[in-house]
UniProtKB/TrEMBL annotation:
Belongs to the VPS26 family. InterPro entries: Arrestin-like_C (IPR014752), Vps26-related (IPR028934). One of its GO terms (biological process) is intracellular protein transport. It comes from Aphanomyces invadans. This is Vacuolar protein sorting-associated protein 26.
Amino acid sequence: MKSLFSFGTPAELVISITGEDSRRKEGELLVFTPTDDISGVLRVTAKKLDHGGVKVELIGVIQTTVDKGSQFEFTSSVRALSQSGTLDGSEVLLLFRHPTTSSHTFPQEFPFAFVNVDKPHESYYGKSVKLRYFVRATVVRSYAPNLTKEQDFLVQSTDVAPELNSTIKMEVGIEDCLHIEFEYNKSKYHLQDVVVGKVFFLLVRIKITHMELAIVRRESSGSGLDKLTDTETVTKFEIMDGAPVKGTLAPRTSLALDHMFNGAGESIPVRLFLGGVALTPTYKNVNNKFSVKYFLNLVLVDESDRRYFKQQEITLWRKRA
């Protein structure tokens, strides 16, 4: 946890959020649900510092590069911890220090709690947009810049399984040269799910050298002329290396997903595990500021290095936080 100001700052501020030793973390950040209360302690270490008050705020902001570094604050709550006065850690020391010991400065502690504060959106740290939650502590000073310290935390929401979850079926084709069908078992996946499907070669008169399935993330922020879209391949999985040869592929009636398909043909099974991939849920127009979408992208490459692909949007959701 970062706790120090630059050299020469008249005070050190440390924010400790309750649950640091027991609550789940992602990286260095504690994870909370939207209904969790946020509490903790602010520790201020200063030999002697006159101030105009001490406060903490719980803040949620959206920051985008489209807005040139500006930020949109969508939730905020303030707690006053101390009225104007003097912070003097050395006075606390006098009660305990032996006359022969060297002088030290003890921190003064200010407990805080944010109860029932609205946290409507999930935390998100993308390439062009961030949705942050943090606790900010401020020591107000009249004739000098205020002293501030921020401590981020994460908010994650869980959803129930969708009632409707239809299969995905698509085709890739070039007249008289290539006809491929592929189908996935559903269109909505939780973050620990498995993408299961088949790829069917109905007509192949060109030499396919490589085929892969990728998950693509598309992050959009802003609107109109200022809209910015960033596309990233999160992971990819090689389905086939080399040309399909009749008799080496599975027949259409051999897999557990046979109820999904009709007709005859050669097929390749697909299983892509999502649990080890850095994914987030799908976000749709969060506060009219940004969206995050995910796509399954099937790519075929022929011997002339021509690429054929088909992309289908999927919905991701969080089963457990």
